[in-house]
Amino acid sequence: MPLSEFALIDRYFRAVGVRADVRNGVGDDGAVLVPPPGEDLVAVVDTLVEGVHFPPASDPASIGHRALAVNLSDVAAMGATPAWALLALTLPRANESWLAAFARGFGDLARAHDVQLVGGDTTSGPLSITVQVLGFVPRGEALLRTGGRAGDSVFVTGTPGDAACGLSLLQGRESGRGSPPAMLEALRRRFLFPQPRSGIGVQLRGIASACIDVSDGLAGDLAKLAQAGGCGAEIDVALLPLSDALRACAGEDAAEQYALTGGEDYELCFTVPPARLGALRGWPCTAIGHLVEAPGVRLRRGHNVIEFSHSGFDHFGG
Amino acid sequence: MPLSEFALIDRYFRAVGVRADVRNGVGDDGAVLVPPPGEDLVAVVDTLVEGVHFPPASDPASIGHRALAVNLSDVAAMGATPAWALLALTLPRANESWLAAFARGFGDLARAHDVQLVGGDTTSGPLSITVQVLGFVPRGEALLRTGGRAGDSVFVTGTPGDAACGLSLLQGRESGRGSPPAMLEALRRRFLFPQPRSGIGVQLRGIASACIDVSDGLAGDLAKLAQAGGCGAEIDVALLPLSDALRACAGEDAAEQYALTGGEDYELCFTVPPARLGALRGWPCTAIGHLVEAPGVRLRRGHNVIEFSHSGFDHFGG
Questions:
Q1: Which chain A residues are closer than 8 Å to B124 by Cβ?
Q2: Most buried of the four, A186, A247, B19, B32, by CB within 10 Å?
Q3: How many beta-carbon pairs under 8 angstroms link A with B?
């Protein structure tokens, strides 16, 4: 869309956010930004592809929201404060009402997190959105995946599994029959409009030994965190913080599976050494297990312990 | 490609570039970077989509090279020095030999410009590549599009039109019959492996009043630069630096059209106030006209002056 591209970007994206540290935003070959002195820069990137990361013909406001949210979640997992975003939008044709809704979803979340859209690229092609977010963290204080050690407690924020169940409802793989409509709507919204954990990510600096955001499923993402620290992990299934809505919609067993392997949560999974556990009192997070010496992730249910594997969550419950 | 993604990224992209200012590169939720004190940060993003920005089944080494080159060209147009890149790669399936060639094309160019790949995302979907590059420029010295004024001379680097003619050769729209094979190969390489003007971009700081990179065609990109400065531009067609290869392959008239509207050059078009013209002596750039008060771009050929419009380069030559 060479001719309309500039007009479109102007109309819908130029005014997304306002920050004093932007010398030059959308509209030149590049953005010119003023990093705060003495801080490290954190850079993340994530792509959403139609039919892979969201169902075809999804609400464009949700697509715009999620395209930014998944990146803000990565920034939160680094313990950083987001500042600037760049948007690469590939879409089959310039549909104004679609763009207006997309920009509203993207822009509302950007403003809520004080993020300014400072650059972008619009191209023709199959619907796909790549967003880059830049943020800051005091020098040397970024939360990495690598710091976890055997003996650290494993925590997760919020109630994982809700978003995956919400997606199943949207796709008709869950019927939701018998559940209160408000609960089903809450689950669907957890998929459509995930809320990145920016506040808690920043607060975890100096407390968490390692942190990752839960995008591919709690057990799998914890496996990456444990491996990065050269250890393994054990999850006590009874400790999983399952929401009432998830339990009501999916039943207890499926709820556990959603929580462990569903993905799309954009919660934080992090580890805390024993000496710092007191700092977490009153936070919206739940201890679900420990890091251990032996590699791999094991699920403990009472006296049963099952080895977790990406390909084998049907072994689960045995 | 959830299971193989990490192995693939590890194998092909982890070692692209090495810089001391990267605290944490590929492999966590985000990269942690140390911006140089006292400099502005420049951020650019560009997407290439198969069938839109390059022909289907193109050489993957060329795709990898171009995905980075178009961004390095944007950084050069800002007068900035590139430092770090993030790569979002969407591809239909994980083909190892394709990935190896892509990474070689990307990596060779990255290393040549001292750029480190610090993050990325790999997803399944129609082939598309979005790259972001971050770079630096001394505080307040970025070259913007907005600084041009009537009376400034207009320059372009290199020999525009070659890349567009090279693409026509690749697509069979030009036969190249009668031209020396080495010339045709040179034109094709100008499309497949464009060399961003990083060095000259940095040197233009304090000299150029405005700068843009030529991606959509010289006349159209100059129109954007002139409009951003609140003025117009006049190009003297006789001054266009046409390469011998382009002339031999396309003939004089078509060569001018390629140079004015072909695109894909990734040369720099910039303006210089009269008082600073002396600074350019010996540089690989050519004066092709002036900025003028009246808006729009006009092409002068002897006594004929033709108004340029995006939709009407067939009016040209009249």
A1: 49, 52
A2: B32
A3: 201
- Residue A51 carries which side chain, given as an amino acid letter? G
Say what the pTM is.
0.93
Chain B hits for A78, CB-CB cut-off 8 Å, are 28-30, 32
Cβ-defined contact of A47 to B121 (cutoff 8 Å): yes
Q: Mapped to the 3 state alphabet, what secondary structure does chain B carry?
A: CCCCHHHHHHHHHCCCCCCCCEEECCCCCCEEECCCCCEEEEEEEEEEEECCCECCCCCHHHHHHHHHHHHHHHHHHCCCEEEEEEEEEEECCCCHHHHHHHHHHHHHHHHHCCCEEEEEEEEECCCEEEEEEEEEEECCCCCCCCCCCCCCEEEEECCCCHHHHHHHHHHCCCCCCCCCHHHHHHHHHHHHCCCCCHHHHHHCCCCCCEEEEECCCHHHHHHHHHHHCCCEEEEEHHHCCCCHHHHHHHCHHHHHHHHHHCCCCCEEEEEECHHHHHHHCCCCEEEEEEEECCCEEEEEECCEEEECCCCCCCCCCC
Report residue A281's pLDDT band, with 50, 70 and 90 as the boundaries: confident
pLDDT tens across A47-60, in order? 999 998 999 999 99
pLDDT for residue B9: 65
With CA atoms as reference, the chain B residue closest to A85 would be B43
User: What is the spatial distance between Cα A216 and Cα A227, in angstroms, rounded to a whole number?
Assistant: 16
pLDDT tops 50 at residue A204 = yes
pLDDT at position B317: 31
How close does chain A come to B288, measured CA to CA in Å? 21
What are the chain B neighbours of A84 within 8 Å (beta carbons)?
43
**pLDDT at A311 > cutoff 50:** no
Q: Do A43 and B84 touch (CB under 8 A)?
A: yes
Which of A52, A74, A126 lies nearest to residue B30, judging by beta carbons?
Answer: A74
- pLDDT at B313 (0 to 100): 40
Shortest distance between the Cα of B242 and any Cα of chain A, in A, equals: 25
Q: List Cβ neighbours of B241 (8 Å cut-off, separation of 6 or more).
A: B156, B158, B159, B160, B259, B286, B288
On average, the pLDDT of chain B sits at 92
Reported ipTM = 0.92
Which of A24, A47, A228 faces B130 most closely, judged by CB atoms? A47
Does A128 sit within 8 Å of B128, measured CB to CB?
A: yes
Test mutation, B28, B117, B267, chain A, max A CBs within 10 A: B28
Residue B312 has pLDDT above 50, yes or no: no
Which top CATH class is B153-306?
Answer: alpha beta
Mean pLDDT, chain A, as a whole number? 92
Provide the residue type at A184 as one letter.
Answer: L
Residues of chain A found within 8 Å of residue B139, distances taken between Cβ atoms? 34
Is the CB of B142 less than 8 angstroms away from the CB of A40? Answer: no
pLDDT interval class at A314 (50, 70, 90) = very low
Q: Where are the domains of chain A?
A: 5-138, 153-306
Q: What local confidence, expressed as pLDDT, does residue B4 receive?
A: 57
Contact A40 B23 (CB under 8 A): yes
Q: Which residues of B touch A142 (CB under 8 A)?
A: 23-24, 30, 32
Please write the tens of the pLDDT for every residue from A135-166. 999 999 999 999 999 999 999 999 999 999 99
